[in-house]
Amino acid sequence: MKRKLRVLASIMALTLSVTSLAACGSSKGDSSPSPSGSASASGSAAPSGEKDTITALLPPVSPTYQDNFAQMEKEFNALYPNLTLKIEPASWEDMSQKLDTQVNAGSPPDIAFIGSGGIAKYVDQGMLMDITDSVTPDMVSDFDPLPLEYMKNGNSLYGLPAYMEVHAIGGNKQFLEQAGIDWKKVQQEGWTYEQFREAIKKGVVTENGKKRYGFVFATAGVASRDYLTILVKNAGMPDPFTSDLKYAYTSKNYLEVLKAVRQMIDDGSMPKELSSVDAGKRWNMFLTGQTMITGKGLAVFENSAKKNNAKIDANDGSAVKDSIKVDYVVLPVPSFLGQPPVSSTVVDGYVTFRGKKEPTAEHKANVVKAAYFLASGKVAATTNNDLFAAHITKSAKEAAKSMTIDRNPDNIAAVDVMLSHAAKPRPDIPTDKAAQAIKLEDEVIIPKLQALLANEIKPEAMYEAVKAAAIKAFGEDGVVKD
């Protein structure tokens, strides 16, 4: 999804009408659920064997994901005749606001698709449902161990992961080769910021009166937090907190990354209007040849590019206007200041919520059944193949054997390298600290970054603002000083 993937496939997100946000009610075996569809947020699910409704708030996780909602509901009911899965669609743009509205009203959905990074926020609000004692051993053993760890806070499990991918960047193969960039070497060995900066300078070309940039990254809308988060991981700050739980973004390395953000705009490699580029515009610029490299890049973009290429070949008018054929190349984010590469890992999934009252054991078990249904087997295999994402359950891998997928082997190998550098899960970060860090990001970092991108403030001014806010939040002894 936050994470997160929270922006995954936002280029195709649909703004759909949605059902009421009214408070969730109890089904009590009744055939007509409450307006919001939740039979559970009140914690008064039906006794064992009686009817129960599980609600799920789901964004367009993959290009065709929301097209399958009716089929998902039907198959779940066939598997569990006494249970109803009621899915409420949301666009990526309104997902967070819609979920927070329901959470603040004390009537969240039973399941919401969000990034694992958002778990701490809702744990701190007391609105997540710990399913540690409700998942079965067979469910747990189906998952790869590492992605499952991302769904934990402390020793508690708050949902089931859908996939584990990396936030990368992506290039136009033809343009990269025209600029003399050995993209296969970069895929396997990575590159420093200095090497990357020289490469994107070479990618700036004017042809037939049209300018092509070396690099464009989506920085507006739901993508506003991605750019800086991804860069700083490769500058010795893999997490907002160090291993001894000091806030990391007061490091001098943070300032150097902020300087780099301005450098790439000031030297013309990136557009001066970068602060207004959202995910949709970023992808449009890439498909229409207005940039050599784009970001944030995910595996699904290779699939999206292939589909647009097919539309161009078919000359059916449904391709992106003025688009060109593109061979999408997965590329790593550059590393800074001699620091080792650390891939920004996106583990999004089906997070389990509760209402104001304690849910019954029976209802918890039903919610877990629904979450597992969505995160495994045929549903997960179909979704992850659509995303070009790796399967993280044995059941999805088995289901995927009968499905065809056309993926560039060089890109598969590149993602494997990046996954070997993936940031580790940090369930040790206390929920109050994690929540404060998210608040600082929302209230200080994102607004200041927008001002920096618009050249309204200097890197030093943003750094000092972040540092002051961090000291206020965590104390003089709770932040990095180097």
Low-confidence stretches: 1-47
Q: What do we call the CATH topology of the largest domain? A: D-Maltodextrin-Binding Protein, domain 2
Tally of discrete structural domains = 2
The CATH superfamily of the largest domain is known as: Periplasmic binding protein-like II
Fraction of residues in helix:
40-55%
Report the average pLDDT across residues: 88
User: Mind telling me which CATH architecture of the largest domain this is?
Assistant: 3-Layer(aba) Sandwich
| Largest sheet: number of strands, sense, barrel closure | 9 strands, mixed
Strand-pairing-aware structural class: alpha/beta
Strand content: 5-15%
N-to-C span: 34 Å
Description:
A hairpin with a 2-residue loop joins strand 4 (152-153) and strand 5. The strands form two sheets. Strands 1, 2, 3, 6, 7, 8, 9, 10 and 11 form a nine-stranded mixed β-sheet that branches. A two-stranded antiparallel ribbon has the order 4-5. The chain is α/β, with parallel strands linked by helices. It folds into two domains: 10-164 and 347-420, D-Maltodextrin-Binding Protein, domain 2; 166-344, Periplasmic binding protein-like II (D-Maltodextrin-Binding Protein, domain 2, 3-Layer(aba) Sandwich), CATH 3.40.190.10. Mean pLDDT is 88; it is low at 1-47. Helix 10 packs antiparallel against helix 18 (459-474), helix 14 packs across helix 15 (394-400) and helix 17 (431-453) packs antiparallel against helix 18. The protein has helices at residues 69-79, 92-104, 119-124, 137-142, 145-149, 173-178, 183-189, 193-202, 226-233, 252-266, 279-287, 300-314, 361-375, 377-387, 394-400, 409-420, 431-453, 459-474, and strands at residues 52-58, 83-89, 111-115, 152-153, 156-157, 159-172, 205-207, 210-217, 291-297, 328-331, 344-352. It is found in: Cell envelope. Residues 1-22 form the signal peptide. InterPro entries: Bact_solute-bd_prot1, SBP.
